[in-house]
Amino acid sequence: MSEEVNDAPRAVPRSMVWGLCVNAVLAFGFAIALLYTMGDFQKALDSPTGYPIIEIFYAQTGSKAASSAMMLPILLSGCYSSFNVLASVSRLTWAFARDEGFPFSSFFAHVSPRYKIPLRSLFLVTTITVLIALINIGSSAAFNAVLSLDTLALYISYLVPILFMLIKRVRFPGEIRYGPFNLGRFGVPINTFAMLYGTYITVFLPWPETQPVTASGMNYGAPVFGVALLFAVIDWFVRGHKKWNGPTVMTAPK
Q1: Can you say how many angstroms the Cα of residue 150 is from the centroid of all Cα atoms in its chain?
Q2: What is the DSSP string of 193-225?
Q3: How many CB atoms lie within 10 A of CB 203?
Q4: pLDDT at 62
Q5: Residues whose CB falls within 8 Å of the CB of residue 191, separated by 6 or more in sequence, listed in order
């Protein structure tokens, strides 16, 4: 979505850093308040609602109405964030389709002349999201298997650009075109630490959380990621390598 932002090289990094800092402070305060008021944590875990946070609110207020009122901001924040996710992922899909990196790229790269947004990409993302949610009706284990891909895929997506940036910093430092912000001489150690930490997390994320491993307790992150990666590799050899020329670099007029 940075292509839709004025002065993106400055505005986007600032928004990311400030968003992280503000949310970290708020989350820390919320966690401290929760820890001091949660009471019997086992009772919260065994809540009949299935959500410990509801049990904690109810234990402290003794009122269903008050507990519901306290849950409302959390639910609203989830709803608001879902709109942001749809907006960002639909534009990511559109950008990838525009660069011929997506199956049926010409169709999904279309931008609605009336609404000025990639409606087809938005409908695709929304449809896939709804279909994934419907899996939970038939099998919660299958639903959790799909969701288990989330964190693993995110960490791998972080590691890939960091790895290439680190290689570039070490082998070809003169070829890097920095933006308004850069890590300077701290870039290599910070990138190295990020690679080590990300690799450590990625190795242990796919492991099951409990022993013995059962079908319902199995962590399906690695198998699901493997299937997704297999489809990507097949698409690359069948279609992608013929059309993919790298991302389109768009610069705002001065």
Answers
A1: 7
A2: HHHHHHHHHHHHTTS-SSSS--TTT---HHHHH
A3: 10
A4: 86
A5: 162, 165, 166, 169, 183
Neighbours of 16 (CB within 10 A): 10
Confidence of residue 249 (pLDDT cuts 50, 70, 90): low
Interatomic CA distance for residues 114 and 54, integer angstroms: 44
- Contact criterion met (CB below 8 Å) for 12 and 5: yes
The Cα–Cα gap between 148 and 142 comes to: 10
Start-to-end CA span in the chain (Å): 19
Backbone angles phi, psi at 39, to 5 degrees: 70, -135
| Average pLDDT in the chain | 86
Task: State the pLDDT confidence band at 166, using cuts at 50, 70 and 90.
Answer: very high
Please tell me whether residue 235 adopts helix, strand or coil conformation. helix
All residues at 6 or more sequence positions from 224 whose CB lies less than 8 Å from its CB, including other chains = 145, 146, 148, 149
The answer to whether the beta carbons of residues 2 and 12 sit under 8 Å apart is: yes
Provide the whole-model pTM.
Answer: 0.76
pLDDT of residue 254: 46
Triad 98, 100, 106: Cα angle to 5°: 65
Residue 5 is classified by DSSP as: S
- pLDDT tens for 60-99 read 888 889 999 999 988 998 888 888 888 888 988 998 888 8
Report the distance separating Cα 57 and Cα 59, nearest Å: 6
**For the chain, domain boundaries:** 139-254
Cβ contact 74:51 at 8 Å: no
